[in-house]
């Protein structure tokens, strides 16, 4: 599928990797609709970005909110060719915090919140969008931003489980809907240099993490964007988990 003139729906496109993807897709001539939780970021996108970019406020972890937002998007005449499930929260917490004097076990609220944002959202949005694609007889593409944490990352029970779920859904839907011409790809970044990565980690921690990467550096958001464009354009690609991690999983 070509990028020019393609209608792409991006979740969590207000900042970070999602925002970068929106800008690069816009530059490549795609039309972009963003579902974003943060109202201020939606306003920013609607005011600053090009006429090809629109944003609507939506908590993609909330099934009813997703239904309303998808209806808004499609009623605006936006027939979705490509969905990018990008919205997510990165959360680290040990299964048992041995140093805590009060509640030592992993918070169940945090578990639910991460699963809702990082996994439920992918199911809620994709099921509605695929229904729309099939009704419009589109040979659509669904790209989900996973993580190498899907292989199991110490201290990230909920995040790792959610991203492993995203990979499983990618395989399942590729098999289920491939015969109808739809494609499903997951992109699994390693450590990416984003404003939130910089805000969350100290310089010392960042230097330590880079030593674990065979290429000895963080990935640029451009590397994720290039993988997204490749996934859209390569018509024989489906069911793949594309690792963009500088060799970290090796
Ligand atoms: N940054 C990394 O190094 C890295 C590595 C691997 C995978 N990822 C994945 O990439 C994706 C983007 O990560 P990022 O680092 O850009 O994060 P980020 O926090 O910078 O941006 C996430 C965006 O999603 C939005 N969002 C969050 N919850 C939402 C919800 N319920 N509904 C709608 N929008 C919501 C936020 O408002 C924000 O605009 C995530 O799925 C993350 O797991 C990131």
Automatic annotation (TrEMBL):
<protein>
    <submittedName>
        <fullName>3-oxoacyl-[acyl-carrier protein] reductase</fullName>
    </submittedName>
</protein>
<dbReference type="GO" id="GO:0016491">
    <property type="term" value="F:oxidoreductase activity"/>
</dbReference>
<dbReference type="InterPro" id="IPR057326">
    <property type="entry name" value="KR_dom"/>
</dbReference>
<dbReference type="InterPro" id="IPR002347">
    <property type="entry name" value="SDR_fam"/>
</dbReference>
<dbReference type="InterPro" id="IPR036291">
    <property type="entry name" value="NAD(P)-bd_dom_sf"/>
</dbReference>
<dbReference type="Pfam" id="PF00106">
    <property type="entry name" value="adh_short"/>
</dbReference>
<feature type="domain" description="Ketoreductase">
    <location>
        <begin position="6"/>
        <end position="190"/>
    </location>
</feature>
<dbReference type="InterPro" id="IPR020904">
    <property type="entry name" value="Sc_DH/Rdtase_CS"/>
</dbReference>
<keyword id="KW-0560">Oxidoreductase</keyword>
<comment type="similarity">
    <text>Belongs to the short-chain dehydrogenases/reductases (SDR) family.</text>
</comment>
């Amino acid at each position: 599928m070509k990028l020019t003139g393609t209608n792409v729906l991006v979740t969590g496109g207000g900042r970070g990797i999602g925002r970068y993807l929106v800008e690069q897709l816009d530059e490549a001539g795609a039309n972009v609709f963003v579902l974003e939780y943060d109202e201020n970021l939606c306003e920013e996108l609607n005011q600053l970005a090009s006429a090809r970019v629109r944003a609507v406020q939506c908590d993609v972890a909330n099934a009813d909110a997703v239904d309303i937002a998808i209806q808004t998007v499609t009623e605006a005449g936006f027939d979705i060719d490509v969905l990018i499930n990008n919205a997510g929260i990165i959360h680290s917490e040990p299964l048992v915090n041995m140093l805590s004097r009060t509640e030592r076990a992993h918070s169940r609220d945090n578990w639910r919140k991460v699963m809702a944002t990082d996994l439920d959202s992918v199911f809620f949005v994709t099921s509605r969008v695929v229904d729309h694609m099939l009704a419009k007889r589109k040979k659509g593409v669904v790209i989900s931003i996973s993580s190498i944490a899907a292989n199991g990352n110490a201290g990230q029970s909920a995040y790792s489980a959610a991203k492993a779920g995203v990979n499983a859904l990618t395989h399942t839907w590729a098999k289920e809907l491939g015969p109808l011409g739809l494609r499903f790809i997951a992109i699994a970044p390693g450590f990416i240099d984003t404003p939130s990565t910089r805000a969350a980690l100290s310089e010392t921690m960042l230097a330590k993490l880079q030593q674990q990467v065979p290429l000895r550096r963080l990935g640029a958001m451009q590397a994720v964007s290039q993988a997204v464009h490749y996934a859209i354009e390569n018509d024989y690609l489906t069911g793949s988990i594309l690792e963009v991690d500088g060799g970290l999983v090796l």
